[in-house]
Design goal:
Blueprint: H1 2-6, H2 26-35, E1 40-41, E2 44-45, E3 50-56, H3 75-83, E4 85-91, H4 96-105, H5 109-112, H6 117-120, H7 131-137, E5 141-147, E6 162-166, E7 181-184, E8 187-190, H8 197-211, E9 217-222, H9 243-264, E10 271-277, H10 283-286, H11 305-308, E11 309-315, E12 324-326, E13 330-331, H12 335-343, H13 359-363, E14 373-377, E15 380-384, E16 388-391, E17 396-398, E18 407-408, H14 416-432
Parallel strand pairs: 3-9, 3-10, 4-12, 4-13, 5-6, 5-9
Antiparallel strand pairs: 1-2, 4-11, 6-7, 7-8, 10-11, 14-15, 15-16, 16-17, 17-18
Helix pairs in contact: 3-9, 8-9
The structure holds calcium ion (CA).
């Protein structure tokens, strides 16, 4: 993993230089945050930060410049990383729906039942509460823009004040059947021939931010990019476009436009931006998403690093120090308690929240907020430490060669270190007890419920 830590970032002017520079005085801010003697949130007194959660689709670490991608260039995302903190051990579920359920509920799949794509579609607001509900209760205006799959109902049923959603995944133009229409706050609209969904989403997000800039707001910006089927972007050459590279570049450009907008609105100091991938690079793209000439082990949908390891960058100039790289393990259940802490929301006591808040790590008061991440898809799961991984079958892997190689360590070959790790991680799994929770009833692929295909659960 060291390779991800040392991957060269494109050096571009940090975001802290845009807008106010008064928040360069970190110690004072930290002290106030630490002592609680005054509520100061990144330069805006008496107000929690705005939260913008940008979720890219099927974008793995090998697709991002500052993670060392050989082939792809992402100068704006790199710039975001330079302004904040980049994680090299961020984990989530290796498929879209289960991954998004972790983010939104803060709870592991064996508790919510979201073990496969179809089952995510059966989540119920009466049983599970999304992050958006807690934030709205805390006074946030909440907006969801983009992909809503594989969640059921509409974003408005889950605590979002406003939304624009399309059907399925990877919608770009109306030439694709799934792109013929989209829904805005319950109203179906036609996507016209001259409209490009990524631009439409960007415009909608900017409009939402402009209208709610005086309040704390939460934007769940769920991109089309870069889920297939990929189409040429407005910037693609007419002849022989490189669809993956072009789509990554266009996504990157739009993120740059959003950062510029926030700078112009003087909102960078009062806004936490999270950029994350929802799972690893897809199978058809994984061979080209190399880092230092090497392909990751596995890809989207697998229980290897290429499935659940994702790019994660957080930026909040004035609070999170710029240019940092965290090798601390985290998983995507951590966002809910993190955002709740920032919003001043007490976590519910009637259910287990698996995530752990990242806020202390960001403030620099705690080096590492958790020692392990838990990853599940269908009936497979593992717990992952920095050096080791133990799965549901009791197989221990030495992850020293991750994300490119994972070495099975047979019990007969145990060293004192591996024996300790085996016991330590087994104790974590025993404590979680996934087998005692809601068991996956799907076909084992993580896509379908029932023993055979049930509807079109997307990909
Ligand atoms: Ca995905």
């Amino acid at each position: 993993m060291d390779v991800l830590s040392t991957a060269p970032c494109v050096q571009i002017r940090g975001l802290t230089e845009i807008g106010s520079t008064s928040m360069r005085s970190f110690p004072a801010v930290f002290w106030l945050l630490l002592t609680g003697s005054a509520v100061v949130w990144g330069g805006s007194p008496d107000r929690p930060p705005n939260l913008i959660f940008i979720l890219a689709d099927d974008l793995g670490v090998g697709n991002v410049g500052c993670y060392g991608s050989d082939r792809y260039r992402t100068p704006q995302i790199d710039r975001l990383a330079q302004s904040g903190l980049r994680y090299t051990r961020a984990y989530t579920a290796p498929l879209c729906g289960p991954s998004r359920a972790l983010i939104m509920t803060g709870r592991y799949a064996f508790r919510t039942g979201a073990t496969n794509q179809d089952r995510v579609g059966q989540l119920k607001p009466a049983a599970e509460t999304m992050l958006s509900v807690y934030l709205r209760q805390a006074g946030y205006r909440t907006g969801a823009f983009g992909k809503w799959s594989q969640f059921p109902l509409q974003p408005s049923d889950w605590g979002f004040d406003e939304y624009l959603r399309f059907s399925g995944s990877g919608v770009y133009r109306n030439t694709d059947a799934k792109g013929e229409s989209y829904v805005v706050n319950g109203e179906s609209r036609r996507l016209t021939a001259d409209q490009y969904m990524p631009d439409l989403l960007h415009e909608r997000v900017v409009d939402f931010i402009r209208r709610h800039r005086e309040q704390p707001f939460f934007v769940y910006y769920s991109l089309s990019s870069v889920h297939g089927e990929l189409l040429p972007t407005p910037d693609s050459p007419a002849v022989e476009p490189d669809l993956m590279a072009d789509n990554i570049s266009y996504m990157d450009k739009l993120i740059g436009k959003l950062l510029s907008e926030l700078g112009q609105q003087n909102l960078l100091q009062s806004t936490l931006i999270v950029f994350m991938g929802d799972n690893g690079t897809g199978k058809g793209q994984a061979d080209e998403a190399t880092i230092g000439g090497r392909r990751l082990a596995g890809q989207k949908g697998t229980m290897q690093e290429g499935g659940a390891l994702v790019p994660l960058i957080v930026s909040w100039p004035g609070v999170i120090a710029g240019g940092g790289v965290s090798d601390g393990v985290m998983d995507s259940t951590d966002f809910l308690p993190t955002f709740c802490e920032l919003a001043g929301v007490t976590l519910p006591s009637d259910r287990v929240i698996d995530g752990r808040s990242l806020v202390a790590e960001w403030r620099g008061t705690q080096a590492q907020h958790r020692k392990w991440a838990f990853v599940q898809l269908a009936r497979n799961w593992y717990v992952r430490e920095a050096q080791w991984k133990l799965n549901q079958a009791g197989e221990l892997f030495d992850m020293g060669g991750a994300p490119f190689a994972e070495s099975l360590v047979p019990q007969s070959a145990d060293t004192p270190d591996s024996r300790e790790a085996r016991q330590r991680l087994q104790a974590v799994l025993d404590g979680l007890n996934p087998a005692g929770g809601i068991l996956d009833d799907g076909d084992g692929s993580g896509r379908h419920a029932g023993r055979k295909k049930e509807g079109n659960s997307g990909d």
